[in-house]
Amino acid sequence: MTHHPPVSLAVVDMAGTTVLDDGLVEEAATRAFAAAGVADDAHDRALRYVRDTMGQSKITVFRALFGSEEVAQRANAAFEEAYADLVAAGRCAPVPGAQEAVRSLREAGVAVAFTTGFAPVTRDAILSSLGWRDLADLALSPVDAGRGRPYPDMVLTAVLRLGVADVRAVAVTGDTASDMRCARSAGAGLAVGVLTGAHDRAALTEAGATHVIDSVRDLPALIASTGTDPASQE
């Protein structure tokens, strides 16, 4: 059995993992489609693609959908505006136990980095709405790292900024297949799927999850149970 160091950094997704989505992404995407001029008969297909690519950078999703940088940027701006309006209207709530889980991890000496496919302005609006601006050690969007999920950039940026010595000491947690692929491509010791968001156990496992838990509230216990070998249940 390969020895892995104990977890010293938890990289944790936001929407669907620590923040209840409650259909907000799809609502904002619908407004983005209107801005991009998506025809009624193409709406369902576009929305299905948004669901399938949950966790990825939204500008990347819109580029793939529309093939035009101008249209993608227009759609992305409309998406960010719509999501901000939904947050401002009080449609933003934490996953039960998420705040306590993050605090528990930090009290145990595990650094925590939030990651998201949203732009920084949306990310920060969510954190401010929840009173979470100081909850984690770091919060990253794709623009802060280079590329969004499923690329490993945000995980590796967190490793560098927080001074983690070994990427195998990282636990990446999220609700999408993109989160799991990101974890595996970064070389993280733990790729932890949660069942509070977009994708089910089968999709998370197929994408490379080493563990699947009901909720992020269970993450501190999982990390504690892995001791000095986070890969022991791979």
From TrEMBL:
Coiled coil: none annotated. The keyword Hydrolase applies. One of its GO terms (biological process) is DNA repair. GO terms for cellular component: cytosol. Pfam families: Hydrolase (PF00702). Keywords: Hydrolase. This is Phosphonatase-like hydrolase. It comes from Marinactinospora thermotolerans DSM 45154.
